[in-house]
User: Which sequence fits this backbone?
């Protein structure tokens, strides 16, 4: 190895010794070389720029829009509207008080800014649910739901929130399921990953006994990150209507495994109480529910029914006190 190293060093020294020094280069040649160096360097820079430009990461117009909107201050009215929206969209154990609180927040938002379309859209959805699900069946409530949805759409015709509000209204109070479906199918093209749109489509199809259509929307909803507990709960309701209790049991279990929801628990109580008649199991489910959910009209009605059938008359009377009179009369 020593001889190889010596040989290599000798070759390198010889090559260096054989290289002509600066003095051996004529003066004219040296001036010519000095003139060529900047030209060559400039050419190399141009080539590098041409090669680099196609690969340069550019910002899309959408990214600039995002920066501008991120920098833009959010109005107090919009903050209230977003709080209201979170109450009804983000709480899996949503109850009547969520919708009433959302309505109050939106009323404050509209008082601050009557042109805030999102506040009108959220309050419209809350109005529909309060009318349809919580038996607030006054003519004023129905008129409010319609006018609020129409106002949201007038202020922001292209808004997802406005379109969703009108679809809610059409489905339960207005033009009917077909009109709601058509509107939602247009919305889902603009917002294909909006879980609320997909879940409402599942509800329309499954409760309309259109199983294959419901399954198509269910597949899209459950493919989203985190799945869709509500879409599976809607499938459970379909199996209840069809009288297929084992399939309903499977869908309820899948729904609650994703995350507990008000609708999932109510579907389980329906199955245990009215389907399997497993009253002890139903009582155990009711006892384990959060207190806010036990106060819900439908859940209190199941608690009353279970206690009555088990001949727990004091428990039945206590449950009955929690149920509003207008709910019982409806």
Assistant:
């Amino acid at each position: 190895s020593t001889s190889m190293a010596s040989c290599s060093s000798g070759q390198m020294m010889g090559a260096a010794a054989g290289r002509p020094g600066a003095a051996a280069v004529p003066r004219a040649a040296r001036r010519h070389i000095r003139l060529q160096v900047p030209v060559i360097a400039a050419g190399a820079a141009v080539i590098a720029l041409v090669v680099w430009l196609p690969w340069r990461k550019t910002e899309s117009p959408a990214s600039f829009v995002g920066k501008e909107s991120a920098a833009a201050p959010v109005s107090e009215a919009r903050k209230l509207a977003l709080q209201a929206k979170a109450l009804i969209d983000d709480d899996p154990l949503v109850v009547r008080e969520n919708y009433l609180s959302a309505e109050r927040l939106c009323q404050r938002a509209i008082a601050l800014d009557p042109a805030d379309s999102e506040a009108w859209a959220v309050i419209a959805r809350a109005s529909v649910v309060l009318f349809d699900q919580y038996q607030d069946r006054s003519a004023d409530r129905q008129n409010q739901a319609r006018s609020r949805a129409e106002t949201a759409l007038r202020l922001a015709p292209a808004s997802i929130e406005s379109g969703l509000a009108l679809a809610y209204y059409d489905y339960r109070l207005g033009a009917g399921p077909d009109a709601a479906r058509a509107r939602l199918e247009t919305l889902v093209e603009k917002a294909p990953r909006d879980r609320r749109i997909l879940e409402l489509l599942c509800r329309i199809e499954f409760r309309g006994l259109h199983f294959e259509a419901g399954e198509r929307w269910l597949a899209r909803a459950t493919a989203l990150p985190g799945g869709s507990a509500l879409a599976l709960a809607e499938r459970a309701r379909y199996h209840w209507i069809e009288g297929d209790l084992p399939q309903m049991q499977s869908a309820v279990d899948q729904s609650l495994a994703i995350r507990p929801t008000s609708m999932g628990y109510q579907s389980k109580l329906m199955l245990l109480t009215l389907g399997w008649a497993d009253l002890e199991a139903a009582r155990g489910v009711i006892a384990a529910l959060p207190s806010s959910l036990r106060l819900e009209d439908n859940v209190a009605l199941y608690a009353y029914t279970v206690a009555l059938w088990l001949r727990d008359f004091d428990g039945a009377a206590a449950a009955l006190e929690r149920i509003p009179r207008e709910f019982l009369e409806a």
User: Anything to note?
Assistant: Residues 27-52 form the longest helix (26 residues). Residues 1-69 have pLDDT under 50 and may be disordered. The radius of gyration is 34 Å.
